[in-house]
Amino acid sequence: MPDADLPMLLAFFKAMSNESRLRIVGLLAARERSVRELADLLGLKEPTVSHHLTALKSLGIVVARAEGVTRWHALRLEALSDLNRSLLEQPGVAGIALQPDEASEDERVVAGYLDASGRLTAIPASRRKRIAVLKWLVRQFDEGRRYREGEVNEILKRRHEDCATLRREFIGHRMMAREAGVYWRLPEPQWRLAPEG
Asked: How many CB atoms lie within 10 A of CB 129?
C-alpha cells in the first residue's frame, strides 16, 4: 500500500469509530459470516449490516464471496495489517501532529469530499479541487506496476463508481499511461496539471 495520507487516515478512523462496524470486524476476525448471521448476532436489520459492510469493503478490509444465494463476508487480516503499517508507523503518526493550518491544501480538499467510509461523495467540478482528488487517487497505484483495466476499475470503485471518468482524467493529465488495456502510473514530474496554452 502507498504511504499514508491524511484523507485516508481520516476515512479509516471515521469508518472504525462506529460501534457496529467494530463489532462486525470482531465477529469476522473469528470466521466468515453472512449478512443474516451478522444481523442476528448484532440485533440489527440486514440492510443496516449491509451498509456497514459496504463501508468496510471500501477500506479494503472486508471481502465477500458468493455461495449460491448467500454472500459470505470475511476480514482481510493482511489488509488490516497493511493499513495499520501505512497509517500508524512513525512517519504517518508524526504527520498527525501538524496543525490544521499546516496541512496541505490538497489534503483539506480531499478530506472535504470523503464520506465516513472513505468514498468520494462527488468528483469535484472545480478544476483545482478535481486535480487534488486525482492526485490523491492516482497515488493509490504503485509506480512501476502494471495494472489491467479491471484492476484499475476495482481500485477506483472503492472510492467512486465512475471509474471510466477517473481513468480518462488520469490519461488526460498524464498521471497514467495506457496501452492494450494495461495502465501504469507515470512519474509525478510528467503529470500535466496546468491548463494548456
From this structure: 18
Q: Which amino acid, 77?
A: L
How far, in Å, CA of 57 to CA of 93, rounded?
24
Q: Provide the domain limits for residue 24.
A: 1-118
Residues 7-30 have pLDDT tens digits of 667 777 777 888 999 999 999 999
Query: Residue 91's domain is classified under what CATH number?
Result: 1.10.10.10
Rounded distance between C-alpha atoms, residue 41 and residue 36, angstroms: 9
- pTM reported for the whole predicted model: 0.54
Q: Is there a single domain that holds both residue 29 and residue 67?
A: yes
94 closest CA partner among 1, 9, 188: 9
C-alpha–C-alpha distance, residues 28 and 56, integer Å: 11
CB atoms within 10 A of CB 121: 10
**Chain segment 35-84, per-residue pLDDT in tens:** 999 999 999 999 999 999 988 887 788 999 999 999 999 998 887 777 67
- Choose one of 59, 84, 118: the last residue of a domain: 118
Q: Where are the alpha helices (DSSP H) in 5-148?
A: 6-16, 19-30, 35-42, 46-58, 77-88, 90-96, 105-112, 127-138
Last residue of a domain, one of 118, 142, 175: 118
